[in-house]
Amino acid sequence: MADRISTLVLFEKPDAGEIGAIGLGVPAMRARSERRQGSISCPAGLVVTWAYGHMLELPPPATYLADVPAAKTVAADRAALEYLHWRSADALAQFTEAVFGRRLVAKPRTEANARRQFGVLKDLVKRADSIIIATDDDDEGEAIGWDLVEHLQFKGPVQRAVFVAVDPKSIATAVRNPVAGDKTRPRALAARARAEADWKIGMLLSAAAQQTFVPSAMRGITFRVGRVKCVVQWLVARRHREIRDFRPQKFFTIQMMIAAGGATSGAILVEHAPSGDLRIFNAELAEKVRHEAANWEGNARISRTEKRRPPPKLFSGSALVAAITRRSRVSLAQAETARNNCYSPLGILTYPRSSGTCLAESAIEHVPQVLAALKDVEGLAGLVPPGVPVIRRGKGQTFSDADLAKASHDAIVPNPKSAGNYAERLREAGPLERDVFSEAAERYLLQFWPDQVYDEILIEVPIIVDGIERIFRARTELIKDAGWTAAASSLDGDDDQVEQDIGDRQAQLAAFAAAGGHARATSASIKEGKTEPPKPYTAATLIEAMSSVHRELQATDPRSARVLAEVGGIGTQASQPGLVTELIETHMISSDKKGRIDITTVGLTQVEAFEQHAPELVDPVLSAVIELEARAVRTGKQTIDGYVGKVESWINKIRTRFAAAPMLDPSAFGPEAAAAAAAAGQVTVDQRKTAESISRAIGLAIPDTALASRADLGAWIDEHMSRAREIWAAAAPSEKQIAYAKSLAAAAGVTLPDEALTSAQVLSAEIAKLAPKASGAAAKRGGPPSARRRRRG
What we know:
alpha+beta; six-stranded mixed beta sheet; 31 helices; 51% helix
């Protein structure tokens, strides 16, 4: 019989488990070695293990179609969705009845690595006397831990280790000082409530919207409903309409030259240039203001204030992705993949799905080691501060335990674990991964430079016109200590002419401020301008808008603004890039070659249909209110059943309105959508190749009925894919595949793991991982591996 385990410590992912084991006293080499078996034995009777994120997931709709009499023969998930979207309203009503008022039961994931680790967890939990949940410190992390504990029917005591910084010291401290599990379990209930409600909103309202609005002739068009997704789509549609409906307006800026005292030289420019609706749009009023300005004489208001400007905050997960789309001109999906690769497998950045913009105070101890390592990275040496680095510690600073209490993870920075290997691992990385690392490392290094210190000079001239005070202003900054901006300027480059012009103006304003007191106008003029339309979103600015949407409502609807601010805007830091990517991939929004994001015709049609018949689906405030209801489950003010029941009632109200709405005319989807819809039902070349691969693997011919449409073939693929994967996983790799993999490994300067040479599927995964590294290494040496072989021959 296997030994009992005194305490089992459950982490969310393997990397965190390994770091935790090191903090609990396991040598790093042994921790890395034991990690392969799914757990690590630690001193004092502790065993560390981990999940692979959510190990259980809500069932696909096919699970409940068995309860729908007319659909008992539909098994595959894709066919189930097709069935719900295109069959009768009665069938959807039956499906709704099958899932309404019923708690959805999550099932273990079926992927090979998840299935293997689930078996490890099952054995360990059976032998454990107590469990400490050490997953991420948020609702989702809580659910990951408690779902496993309860699914595996553990009856012993459960405690919770609470930490944000994923480093050995922070984790060890948390594990040695756990809190009672019952105190944090309500967060898992909130996550479950949210997941179940979102599942029902997505499944039921997507199908209802499809049946209501999309004609059968447009079968390739799919309306997708999501509590957050629809709001993001509305945000892009709103910007599209603002640009589409924009009409330029002429406005007037009044410029005045003023000189100190009775001087005739040294005059400075001050402007009356208010923004927005406060601009002057009337030419007669503009002339009246100009006339008064031309005859002005009096005392200018002058202030000179010393101010400090700290470096920009460290990157959260979504902010880093947005920055990379700007820097490298790539898509959100590419930037997110590269960011994740820098965490694993490269290990050069910390956890990627972070919402924090600061670090734990315990991370201060890693600063000397990381700064020394970054000196050896190409392009970063000049950013490492000379002398003693500035340490910003405390609330609102770079290192702040108080601020981290509001985040699920600390900011993304160079991983201290890999400090001795940055340069080496970057040589293995692709170009985009190197850009991601540089962006995060540059932001990290700026934190250790002093603040920029400057004097702000503000000169104001008030002029009364028709009883209204019109303020003419001039402002400049005189730099006293460049601080971190001296380092940052080396990244951006300088324009000498611009610098000279700014310097001249600063000198003029400083001289005027020094003279002070009485002044008079030497001239005044009117400068015409035209209002400009809002700029289209980019991936970066859309993510920023999702986080800051509450600011737009601050003046007109402060209550709604408070609600949105409380939930952090639209979506979470971790989910925002994925939401935008999904909308692009499903053709609800588009991104052009310049990275400009716009709504598609189909996407706009969906938004306008919802605005007319279910406006709450595209209302950011209502989405936030639903989120707050889920958080009420966390505090015990609401039960899961009560919360899900409210959402079901809300779904029913929308379904009732949908039922009374008219079907949209096919022309509403645009001519390109009609062409896409016609093609959407046809079997694609790639789909047929996939089906033929499955057919060869399982020894089963593809029936003619499955080749009738893309949906039919998709259902056949789904039905037989799991069996094919089992066969592929067990198959040995071919000599050709092994040779190719070895050539990539040699080009990348790494060694293939032994287990990869025994499984064709595992080796395929290794090839996919090695290909970009080999290409990056080849580019430095003058071409791809195959080309170099030809040259040597």
